[in-house]
Hints:
alpha/beta; five-stranded parallel sheet; Helicase, Ruva Protein, domain 3; Rossmann fold
Amino acid sequence: MKRILIVEDEREVARFLERLFRLKGYETTHIESGRRFDQMSDYSSFQLAFIDIRLPDRNGLDILHDLKKKAPHCSCIIMTGYSTVKTAVEAIKKGAADFIEKPFEDIEAIEQLADRLLKNSFLSSKEAGYAALAEQLGCFLGTNPQMHELYQFAYKIASKNITILIEGETGTGKEVLANYIHAASERKDKPFVGINCGAISESLLESELFGHVKGAFTGAAAERVGYFEAASSGTLFLDEIAEATPATQVKLLRVLETGEFMKIGGTVPRRTTARIIAASHVNLEKAVRQNSFREDLLYRLDVVKLTIPPLRERREDIPFLIQSLIQQTNEKIVFAEETIEQMVRYDWPGNMRELANVIRRTAALAHEGMIIPPHLLPGKVNGQHPAVQTVALNTQDDFLNDWRQLSRKVEHLYKGEQTVQLNELLQTMKKMEKDLIVAVIHSTLKETAGNREQAASRLGLSKRQIRYYLNEK
Length: 473
């Protein structure tokens, strides 16, 4: 018979759990204090334990630690009130299988959780499922233990209706992780809505977040649905939350505290059940000390904090990342061993985003089957001054060979060394000029990830000229 240990000082809660599981055919043992726990002799007979986070004489985390040490096979569920959810999350990091909040609302869910743990299927799915989902979503975890621990923990807490704060340097993949959490949650079939708080002016951000009613201000010709309303029952991702103005921070705090917001110009409060995931490349605790971020808002956001390691702390994964990113470009190229070694040594201040951009730019300069030498990398990566950008001229590059042949023909014509049909030469020059323009445009579009406005700005062209050269109507 399966045995369940209940460590709980509230007698009514303990009696309820005992009755619930005895009716299901499980044997239960109830103790009400840390002292009684220490007096027990047979810990190994329990397969599951419900542990209250707060006991009169002991912290539940201490009992969790001791029980996992004495009976590693015993799955543990932490019981907590709302005010101690942050501590319960810490318990998961220390080995708890899950946590439930008091007062209990979904008794059936507790039964199902206990049944799965006692059958040893729930824990194994939690341990293995995180990697399968990451692969399915295209999240690259590599071999770095810190990344695997991060995603495994994110997978465990995804099903909980708690606010999450993601911190990490620019380009580490904070939105990728937020998407992963949404996909691992029970909200996966609901909307995932993201907004960059630093990319929108203060005057527009409030309208974007909360929406406005018709006639709320000049130009408000129709009612607008804000992000909180659009994401209700789903997930709202607030990227670069540190960039939100003090006025916006106050309004965000109210929504997090009450679940209510007011449209601009509106008089009726509206409710949202959106799950909030915030992200910042700035250390928000430091921002609080510098008086640029509200401490009470940080308290509301930082129920669970996930910190993504920078790429320089997972250098062992860079060769695999390079290969993965090359496959995404659909270019059949290979990086020389010394090139990869150079890229592994580089610190990557822009992290994954910078690495992906370097791969795209390098692939644009290469031809099919080319082995990429170190000097084809951007200056910062190959150790040169950023202004020095050396382009490798490969003798087997058909395009460059055509230019060399054309140059020799022009030279022969100029020197009168051989007869050249001028009209034929001019036609060849026009064709190659067009080929060169198209090649440079395609290369620049790869560098800007298809953004034609950026590409046009870099090339000193208009978007209309780009369409013309690419023979687009």
